[in-house]
Target: Asparaginase
Amino acid sequence: MFTGARTDDKNLHATSLKGRRLECVTFSTFTPAQAGELAVVERSGFIESRHIGSAVVLDPDGSPLISLGAPDAAVFTRSSLKPLQAIAAMSLGAQLTGPAAALAAASHKSEAGHVEVVESMLETAGLSVSDLQCPSAHPADGAFRRELQERARAQGDENTDPRSPLYFNCSGKHAAFLAAARAIGADTSTYLSPDHPVQQKVAEVVETFASEEPSAVGIDGCGAPVFALSLTGLARAIGRVIRMGSADGAVEETAGPWTAYEREARTLTEAVFADPWTIEGHGRPNSTVIDRLGVFAKGGAEGVIVMATRTGYAVAVKCLDGSSRATGFVALTLLQRAGAFGAEPGAASAPENDTVDAVIAAITDPVTGGTDSEGRTNVVGRLELGEDIADIGERKRD
Model:
C-alpha cells in the first residue's frame, strides 16, 4: 500500500452521536500540513496553482490500496452521501424505481427530464412542489431555463424568471425524503429535522454502510442533515452499495449488516447505470463517468467526490480548498493506478487505459488563454498530477 501523510487526530474534536443527538462540534477537518499534493495547474510552463487534499482507494474487501494525506480525518460528505440517503428513503417504503430512484441520489442540473421525474415523484406520493423545503433556484440547464422563459412570455406572465425548489439540484432527494415520510405516516412538514424518523433512518444507514459512527452532523446546502465521515468510511460505504447492487451479480457480497439493504442497493444501482443522465446531466462529468466507464461517480460540494466500480473498488477524494476542478481527474487516475479497471469481470466490461484517459480528458477543463486568428479558444496549459500521485506506479492485477 502506498501511504502519504498520516492523520493527526489531535485537531479533530469529535462528538458521539449515541441517541442520535445530532450536534456539530467538530472544529476542523485535516490541515494543510497533513494534506498531500493532488494536482497542479500549469499555465504557459508555470505552475500557477496547487490543489492539496486527501484521498484513499479501497479494494472490494475495504482494505486500502492507496492512501494520500489524511483519509481517516473527518470531512463533511456533502452530496457524495446521497446514495445512502436514497437507500434510507426506499427502505422506509418510498416507492422509487427507475429514474426516480436515481434522482433520489442525484445532484441534477434541472434538465427538463430531471424536473419531469421529480414532479412525478411528488405526485405519486400525493405531494406537491410546495412541500419541498430545499431552496428555490433557477434551472442550471440553460436550454430548459430558456424554454420556461419563452413559455411564460407566450402566456403573458409578468414574471418570466423561473425560480422554484423544484429546480434546486437536490429536489429529487427531498422528494424521496417526503415520499418516505408519507409512507410511514410521519409529519411531512418537519422532514429535515435531525429527529425526524426519516433522518434517523438515514443516520442508521450511513453508520451501517460506513462501519463508522459519524463524528459530526451539520446542515447541508439544501437544508438536510449532512454527516462527517472519514474518506475511508465514505469509500467503504459507496463501494459496498455499488458492489452489492451490481446487476451482473459478478461478486458475492461479504456478509454484514448492510446486506439488509440489498434490494434497495440493487434498485438504486440498476437505475443509475440504466440512465446515467439522471445523476447530473447529459454530458456532465459524473454522468459521463457512469455512462462511458460503467463506474459510479458522485461529487459533492467543497471538493468531495466518491467513485466505485461494480466489483467494489472505491475511491474518495477531498480537495482541501473546496475546489472541484481536480477531483474527477484525481479520482479516476487513482482508480487506474490501483488497478481497479483491470479487476473488472470480463474483458468486455474492463475499460482500456486509453478509454479511461479519454474520459479523464472529457471531464477535465483545459487551461485557456485568449483566442487564435480564427476566434478559437487557445489552450495554454493543463491540469497535471501532483507529486504525491505522479509517484504512484500502476498496479497490475492477476
